[in-house]
Amino acid sequence: MSSAIDAPSESAPNSKDRGLGVLEGLDLYRRLIGAQIRSLMQYRISFAFDFISTGLITLVECAAVAIVFQRFDSLGCWSLGEVALLYGTVTVAFKTMEMLFVGFDPSGFGESVRLGGFDRIMLLPAGLTLQVLGSRFALHRIGALYIIGSTITFWTIDSIEAINIFTYGGQEMMSVPMHIYHPLMRRFFTFVVPGVFLNYAPVVHLLGREDQIGLGPTAPYLAPFVGLIAMIGALAFWRFGVRHYQSTGT
Amino acid sequence: MSLKSPIIHVRGLEKNFRVARYRGGALSALRSLISREYRLVRAVDGVSFDIAAGEIVGYLGPNGAGKSTTLKMLTGLLVPSGGELLVDGFTPWRERRRYVARIGAVFGQRTSLWWDLPVIESLELLRHIYRVPYDRFKSNLHEIGETLDLGPFLDTPVRSLSLGQRMRADLAAAMLHEPKLLFLDEPTIGLDVVAKESIRNFILSMNRSRGTTVVLTTHDLSDVEKLCERVMIIDHGALIFDGRLQSLRDRFGGDRRLVVDFEDEHVDVAVEGAVVAERDGRRAIYSFARESVSAAELIGRVAARYRIRDLEVREPEIEATVRRIYEERLLDKESTGALDK
After folding, report:
1. How many CB atoms lie under 10 A from the CB of residue B52?
2. Contact flag A28-B129 (C-beta cutoff 8 Å)
3. pLDDT tens, position by position, A83-99
4. Distance between CA A197 and CA A189 in Å, rounded?
5. Which residues of A touch B18 (CB under 8 A)?
6. What is the DSSP string of A76-128?
7. pLDDT tops 60 at residue A143
8. The predicted structure's pLDDT at residue A58
9. Residue A189 near residue A195 (C-beta atoms within 8 A)
10. Do B105 and A18 touch (CB under 8 A)?
11. What distance in Å separates the CA atoms of residue B158 and residue B163, rounded to the nearest whole number?
12. How far is B341 from B333, CA to CA, in rounded Å?
């Protein structure tokens, strides 16, 4: 009886009918994001507060780093300006990712799965990843990690807070020079959550600093590739999660 | 029921869930983190049916009987654990995108619209998702908007709509891409009589004008009476009835009633073939089984003895009928008829 049941798959056998092409996908993404922005604008005051508070938080964080430098002239031999560059790059990168990938924010996505929002997405003839990306947009504020966190939601329903250690915690960690950390920690952020490539390696190179943790000469340029690999891995895990969802309903 | 080319073909459909077993106590909660015991729940346990294009089928059953699970498999949200499932030539979950472009689905309390946007903007977005050409969209919106009377709230954000308005907007959203099949899970739940009526009329008009095949689950049996020629009843994961509404009534309807108002007072109004169920002044209510005597015969017998001012034959309430079927488990699997052979 079970012979009629094969492994579920997202792709249609006939690729011509596969659905949206890249351009159409982008067009739909643009419309979905447009809808999210128009929705946000319905709550102008709340939006203004979010905008201002996010700005203030960034300012305070900057100030905190500066205050530390009042007492110690350098951090791991780096000056305030150099650490600020490190902080700046990681913050811009994270906030951008957060803005684009907030649809995959595990807490929000878990809520959506619970309330059947994901069923709604499955019932529409457009790509699931595209729709989740277009389901929320954080105009005021890490891609791959978010996707992994959201996927875990399929099993746990309650999103796991643990993933935030890697997203927000990782961001904090990477705001200061990586070489001040214990080698074990460094290895974690090199091989498991490869954050060092995002800002530390390029900034070391940019500042003409010595490569103190032995990343090698290619490391400054690896960020896009490492990012791509992490993303591919995360999306594969996401698809696996969707299949699990289809067979369990949770 | 032999159908030439069913649009929905279901054979031996099964869905099992593994449900974690919970034992009481703090220690066991800890233990369940390490090793969990699972219990197999057969939510849908060997269901077979065919539905022909253009039918409106009511899918009934008590809570937890397997209705929603079946509907989720039919719409491709869930992968069956076993059996065959073919809808309009598609295996729903395997070809999700192509399949969902051909169906419309409204799941009860949830909306498929963008909560903070005006209804019309949601419909426009759906037009792009379904890639409906603009003039098709416009003429469909005109026709559907008219039937559902969407005009007054097309520009209202979805969050500000009443439940009835939202359901009408959701139905419009589900029909704008002209699906061949419409799946509705509790479409009238929580609505007032007027809204229910509007939704039923819409379903009927889509079925008649476009030949849309409709499968709907409901707890409201007046939905079934207004809309469905055919009824399927599921209980404990198995189909216990599949047939015409009338035959459900005939078989399990219980006794009919004949209400008679006499011209004069009578002490004894007994007639052969019926039981006097109630007496109230000049009124008597007879209860009679449809197998033993017809309404015409009984009226004849009463009229032969007494002068009648007025009378009325009452059919048993479908609601009571279905409740009896659930409660007394009147049907077993074997009686579902031809499909199981």
Report:
1. 15
2. yes
3. 777 777 777 777 777 77
4. 9
5. 248
6. TTB-HHHHHHHHHHHHHHHHHHHHHHGGG-HHHHHHHHHTTHHHHHHTSSS-H
7. no
8. 76
9. yes
10. no
11. 10
12. 11
Count CA atoms closer than 13 A to B244's CA, side-chain side.
4
Of A27, A38, A43, the CB nearest to B117: A38
pLDDT band at residue B261, thresholds of 50, 70 and 90? very high
> For residue range B126-169, what is the model confidence (pLDDT) as tens digits?
999 999 999 999 999 999 998 898 999 999 999 899 988 999 99
Give me A15's structure tokens: 């690729």
pLDDT band at A194; cut points 50, 70, 90:
confident
How far is A141 from A30, CA to CA, in rounded Å? 19
Select from B18, B82, B94 the Cβ nearest to the Cβ of A2: B82
> Cα–Cα distance between B243 and B1 in angstroms, integer?
8
For the segment B107-127, what is each residue's pLDDT rounded down to a tens digit? 877 888 988 899 999 999 999
SS (H, E, C) chain B: CCCCCEEEEEEEEEEEEEEECCCCCHHHHHHHHHCCCEEEEEEEEEEEEEEECCCEEEEECCCCCCHHHHHHHHCCCCCCCEEEEEECCECCCCCHHHHHCCEEEEECCCCCCCCCCEHHHHHHHHHHHHCCCHHHHHHHHHHHHHHHCCHHHCCCEHHHCCHHHHHHHHHHHHHCCCCCEEEEECCCCCCCHHHHHHHHHHHHHHHHHHCCEEEEECCCHHHHHHHCCEEEEEECCEEEEEEEHHHHHHHHCCCEEEEEEECCCCCCCCCCCCEEEEEECCEEEEEECCCCCCHHHHHHHHHHHCCEEEEEEECCCHHHHHHHHHHHCCCCHHHHCHHHC
pLDDT at B56 over 90: yes
The pLDDT of residue A2: 37
Size of interface A-B (CB pairs under 8 A): 101
ipTM for this prediction: 0.71
| CA–CA distance, B123 with B77 (Å, rounded to integer) | 22
CB contact under 8 A, A123 and B78: no
How far apart (Å, rounded) are the C-alpha atoms in residues B117 and A186?
Answer: 46
Tell me whether strands B213-217 and B230-235 are parallel, antiparallel or unpaired: unpaired
**Which of B79, B100, B111, B123 should one mutate to test binding to chain A, selecting the residue with the greatest count of A CBs within 10 A?**
B79
Task: Read off the pLDDT of residues A14-56 as tens digits, 9 standing for 90 and up.
Answer: 334 444 577 888 888 888 888 888 888 888 888 788 778 877 8
What secondary structure letter does DSSP report for A135? T
State residue B269's pLDDT score: 86
Average confidence (pLDDT) over B242-261: 81
List the single residue in A9, A19, A122 with the smallest CB-CB distance to B77: A122
Using the predicted structure, report yes or no on whether residue A250 has a pLDDT greater than 60: no
Interface contact A46, partner B, CB < 8 A: no
Taking CB atoms and an 8 Å limit, are B82 and A125 in contact across chains? no
- Our CA-based measurement puts residue A127 at a distance from the nearest CA of chain B, in whole angstroms, of 8
Q: What confidence score (pLDDT) does residue A153 get? A: 57
A 58-117 residues with CB below 8 A of B?
115-117
